[in-house]
Hints:
The complex is a heterodimer.
Chain A: H1 12-28, E1 29-30, E2 35-40, E3 61-66, E4 72-74, E5 77-79, H2 81-93, E6 104-109, E7 113-118, E8 121-126, H3 132-158, H4 167-176, E9 181-183
Parallel strand pairs in A: 3-8, 8-9
Antiparallel strand pairs in A: 3-4, 4-5, 6-7
Helix pairs in contact in A: 2-3
Chain B: H1 21-35, E1 37-38, E2 45-46, E3 51-52, E4 56-57, E5 64-72, H2 74-80, E6 85-88, E7 91-93, H3 98-107, E8 118-123, H4 129-141, E9 146-150, E10 152-153
Parallel strand pairs in B: 3-10, 5-8, 8-9
Antiparallel strand pairs in B: 2-5, 5-6, 6-7
Amino acid sequence: MAKKKTPAINSSSTADIAFLLLCYFLMTTTMGSQTGLSRLLPPMPDPNQKVEDQQVNRRNIIVVRVNAANNVLAGSEPIAVSQLKDKVKEFLTNPYNDPNLPEKTPTDIEGFGTYNVSKGVISLQNDRGTSYYQYIAVQNEIVKAIDELRDEFSYNNYGKPFIRLTEDQQSIVKKAVPQNISEAEPKDVSKK
Amino acid sequence: MSKFGGSRNNKEVPGISSGSLSDIVFMLLFFFMVTTQMRESENKVVIKLPEASQSVKLERKDLASYINIGTPTRQYQAQYGTDARIQLNDSFKTTDDIRDFIAAERESMSEGDRNFMTTVIRADEDVRMGIITDVKQELRRCSALRIMYQARKAAE
């Protein structure tokens, strides 16, 4: 019996089909990952609860205000956004133990030992007329200051930048240099 | 005569095999399928994200819900004006609708993931903070506390 050859299936159109699929995905999807600044909002205060004055020592808080004209005020003096980072770093580290800058409390960090953790809190206040652009720029500078402090801490203790530490080490560094940014209740800054 | 003379007599150019073309295209297809993600909704507001050099990657994209804030695109300006508006899913909303939106987003997630829900605020850089403060207050009221200000990664 003669063997019948099965005719080959013409496969030249599979490329076209694949191209069509490719075009579909190119049109409907977006490229690139989303990046941004992560924040944790404070929980809403209970309306039944009395508003207690939070006992935060004056020296432990730095108020960064951004007004409607996008001017930045750190503490009580106007400051340029580019200088804000150094100001925040000085505030958080308090290198000369200045009594006007935040106090440090020796805290026992698991897996590391005791470290003088700064109690400084950065309070960020904005006006309703502040532009979002400026607000993000200020947030970015504050985050940059904290990131640099974390990097310094990592270099001094582990000899590596923060990003290359293991997860456990990163959580230790995060405890040693906490990111205490408070986005305060909305206030009308311009009236001050 | 020649060492390579085998094909001298054969004048016909061999056709290029196109059998592997589909494989190449499929590889491209897989590349795009892996690296991209589906577009969630059509943008009805113009958003030019602000720049921030310290921005970090969003950890879990599936747990994110998006609040778009910006001026409506040209085709909607006749109806909604040029003031900054909030867009949730596919329509213009007000701050009062955020509560329902967050509740719906929460409902669609599995129980264990609800605590990790992140609300991504995608706002145009020219937006005033007033509307964003309203949104933030509303999110606090719904206890959706994890937020992210979406920003472009900028060079130092």
